[in-house]
Specification:
Layout: E1 2-8, E2 11-17, E3 22-25, H1 37-46, E4 63-68, H2 76-89, E5 97-102, H3 120-125, E6 128-130, E7 139-143, E8 149-152, H4 154-158, E9 161-167, E10 170-171, E11 175-176, H5 181-184, H6 190-197, H7 214-226, E12 230-236, E13 242-248, H8 250-265, E14 266-268, E15 273-278, H9 289-301, E16 303-312, H10 322-327, H11 334-343, H12 350-360, E17 364-368, H13 373-378, E18 382-383, H14 387-397, E19 403-407, E20 414-416
Parallel strand pairs: 3-19, 4-5, 4-9, 5-6, 9-12, 14-20, 15-16, 15-19, 16-17, 17-18
Antiparallel strand pairs: 1-2, 7-8, 10-11, 12-13
């Protein structure tokens, strides 16, 4: 037996695999952390891509900054202080700079949770609000060429200067996170998000596709209609450390950042695997199953039809979507989930049921998690009580020589597949 360890929640889970399996550990490239990330942020802001500088956007009396919520590992404590200090140096008072937590269709974060995404020094100095996609005062900004009605947070739109802060990393159907997405989706209205996300059934709405991804390009158009002036994005390594920082015009930031993210995250997979054992990468990527599902997409891409995926995802906050739970009520098979989805109007939340079912009709999904077994079964997945017992059972199914892949950071691993898939 050979020992392995995967991130799980805020800790790790250890287990042993049979030595007669052919085990490959597939993970992003080792990218060294920047020795002085704060200095890197300052340099990026002072030498922005596609802009002469923040001062060139003057005059402005107010600024709004869209930031990610607790489900994303964005290092706000590193990115925000240099940005905020420069805005104040340009003449803005602290109370004229608001930070908006971009929750998208996630539940608005209560003020008591703001400390999970922002340091106390920022909370004490600047006004902070959480977005609500169902707010009654959203601002309308027309319709995109693909038919998406654009509605956005009023505080963001009423600011003279509109900034997005986030990270560029692979996204399982948006292609890549980053750029205008933090505001276009994170501060969008529910109808905006539902209409945009309905593109997820398009064959190009997959990880690492950007230019030909209709969902991502729709997001770019939403961002243009909103009028986002400045983006500040980090690229992180698997240790959630800052590797690179890019700032400036949002489109230029994405164009410069995507090749770097590809270089770190893209891994060639020569043949399909019988069994894939995956982790989303630990907290916060496995904060709930709604987020953890992203790891399944990448794991399924490299699993042969009829194979198995063992996902290790803590999910301390449970399923993470009431809409997803509703979509699973009264169904007895993944085929039925797909049939129901095809007949229903698209809605964010139930779309997770579709994404899981799309993979689960081809592979067996086992879930090791903190969620109660009955919750796991309500999603038609197989709960795992103990890793040792489960691996022993899998050894009976997959004999010596079986191909097994370990994905320690499945959510940010881009499988580059040859013609076999």
């Amino acid at each position: 037996m050979v020992s392995y360890q995967l991130n799980y929640g805020k800790g790790q889970q250890s287990f042993e695999l049979p030595g007669h399996w052919k085990v490959d550990v597939i993970e992003p490239a080792k990218a060294p952390a920047a020795p002085d990330p704060a200095a890197l942020v300052g340099q990026a802001i002072d030498s922005p891509l596609g802009l002469a500088g923040l001062a060139s956007l003057m005059p402005f009396k107010t600024a709004a900054i869209a930031i990610n919520d607790k489900t994303r590992p964005v290092p706000h404590e590193i990115l925000l202080p240099p940005l905020l200090s420069r805005l104040e140096a340009l003449g803005l008072k602290p109370d004229a700079i608001c930070l908006l937590i971009a929750t998208g269709t996630h539940l608005p974060m209560p003020p008591a949770e703001f400390g999970t995404v922002l340091p106390r020094a920022i909370l004490d100095r600047y006004p902070v609000y959480s977005h609500d996609c169902d707010a009654s005062d959203l601002v309308e900004r027309g319709i995109t060429s693909r038919g998406t009605p654009v509605t956005v947070n009023r505080r963001f739109m009423e600011a003279d200067l509109r900034i997005v802060v986030g990270e560029i990393d692979p996204h399982h159907f948006m292609g890549f996170s980053g750029g205008v997405k933090t505001a276009a989706i994170g501060l969008g209205g529910r109808k905006t998000i539902n209409t945009n996300h309905a593109f997820l059934t398009h064959p190009n709405a997959i990880t690492a596709h950007y230019e030909d991804n209709p969902m991502r390009q729709d997001v770019e158009e939403i961002g243009a209609r909103i009028g986002i002036h400045f983006a500040l994005n980090a690229i992180l390594n698997t240790g959630k450390q800052v590797v690179r920082v890019l700032a400036g015009n949002p489109v230029d930031v994405m164009q410069a950042g995507i090749p770097i993210a590809r270089q770190i995250c893209q891994v060639t997979v020569a043949k399909p695997y019988d069994l894939v054992i995956a982790s989303p990468g630990g907290h916060p990527k496995d904060i709930n199953f709604y987020q953890s599902q992203k790891a399944l997409t990448h794991a399924a891409m490299m699993t042969r039809d009829g194979g198995s995926i063992l996902l290790l995802a803590a999910c301390p906050e449970g399923i993470g979507s009431a809409g997803y739970e509703r979509a699973m009520q009264g169904v007895n098979s993944f085929e039925e989930v797909l049939e129901r989805f095809a007949k229903s109007e698209f809605e964010v939340g139930p779309h997770k049921a579709y994404l899981v079912a799309r993979d689960a009709v081809k592979v067996q999904i086992l879930l090791y998690t903190e969620m109660p077994p009955e919750k796991v079964r309500s999603l038609l997945l197989t709960p795992v009580a103990g890793l040792t017992e489960t691996i022993n059972q899998l050894e009976k199914i997959y004999p010596a020589g079986s191909r097994v892949a370990l994905l320690p950071y499945a959510t940010v691993t881009i499988p580059l597949l040859p013609a076999w898939k």
